Amino acid sequence: MKPNPNPNSPFPESLKEKLSQRGRDNALRSLQQTYKDLIDFSSNDYLGFSFNQSISELVSEKLDTYKSTHKSATGSRLLTGNYPMIEDFESYLKGYYNSEAATVFNSGYDANLGLISAIGQRQDLILYDELCHASIRDGIQLSPAKAYKFKHNDLSDLEAKLSKFKDQFDSIYVVSEYVFSMDGDDSDPEALMSLCNRFQAFFILDEAHSIGVLNRYGIDNLCFTPFARVVTFGKAFGAHGAVVLGSNELKTYLINFAKSFVYTTAPSQETTARNWASHLYLDQNAKAFETLKSIIQYFKAEVSSKHLSSCFIDSNSAIQSCVIQGNTKVKSVSKHLQKEGFDVRPILSPTVPKGKERLRFCLHSFNTKTEISEILSKLGQSITN
Fold it and tell me: What is the rounded (10 degree) CA torsion for 67, 96, 256, 238?
């Protein structure tokens, strides 16, 4: 029989203090189950693909086509985990996203972490938008390259930095997102790409929250080709995983040097089948995509008509953020809306800067106009109380 864990086992005082500080800031996180009985305004399942029966049927077809005694990957891609389905899926992704090569990772976090930590060398520079995701920032921290942030969506500030540093480094990488995950606003990829081309910088774009929302196939009409694009499958595709899109040389480099690819078990065949099926469905069915676009426009119109525009960050994406200052206040409003039947979650500092706490509304193709009108009415009442 295994011994019972010692309830009095030691725990470092420095870590206790960090937890205590989170508690004092009313920012201590805990795991919560999904509220199945509440109306979803919180998940990243923008198109409802996670419960789409037609996609589940496509998954079964893929698994039947690639018959295997192994349902798991059994190892890393470089050892025993490079099965036929995942190679064929990568070939499919090349065509879907109009890219020379595609490299699948276990998650968007792994993709950004592996890509950015691997490419930056000691004599290189990484310039990144100040609101870039934590996975991008963590990749930068693991890289020996020098790094500076530029002001959010500020092309003038980026241009000034490119001009200042253009002759000081071997290579310069510029990293941005198409849709930013906390504010929901979007960048201008074409302008960013054009600016990078002028200064011979390498452009990296994270498209996690734009695929299936702003477009179905990603940015495939730019005048220049980005060095790398990152697309995740855990948002609009309702699945799990990610792909780095780029040149054949980049794929070879990642297979050799991206630690989050090299030193991890590959995605299971069930995961790969789900990712593939979701792409096939989105390619063949535009209805949910078009419905989501109309839902976003209706939400924005209702925000305006209910005089709530002053607290919302302007966004054309499925992410609509209402800034409510203070962890205590935003948590209180969130709980009130949950009691009214709506699952909308608070985003607390330090995840966002202090004073920028917000309710993050995630819109979906399956949300109704009635639900939107009701939740915004309840929001207005809660804010004024």
Answer: -70
**Residue 287, Cβ density class (10 Å: 0-12 exposed, 13-18 middle, ≥19 buried):** exposed
Other beta carbons within 10 angstroms of residue 352's beta carbon come to 18
- Residue 267 is given by DSSP the state P
Q: Both tokens of residue 215?
A: 């477009």
**Are residues 351 and 270 part of one domain?**
no
How is residue 23 written in tokens?
């508690």
Show Cβ contacts of residue 344 under 8 Å, excluding neighbours closer than 6 positions: 41, 42, 334, 337, 338, 359, 360, 361, 375
Torsion of CA 378, 381, 384, 385, to 10 degrees: -100
Whether residue 132 sits in one domain with residue 249? yes
Q: Phi/psi at 383 (nearest 5 deg)?
A: -65, -40
| Binned average pLDDT, 10 residues per bin, the chain of 385 residues | 65 91 86 82 97 96 86 91 96 96 98 98 98 97 98 98 96 98 95 96 97 91 86 97 98 98 96 97 96 98 96 97 95 95 94 93 98 97 82
Confirm whether 332 is domain-assigned: yes
Strands 242-246 and 228-232: antiparallel
Cα 211 to its chain centre, rounded Å, is: 10
Q: Which residue, among 101, 114, 89, has the nearest Cα to 237 in the 3D structure?
A: 89
Q: Is residue 267 part of a domain?
A: yes
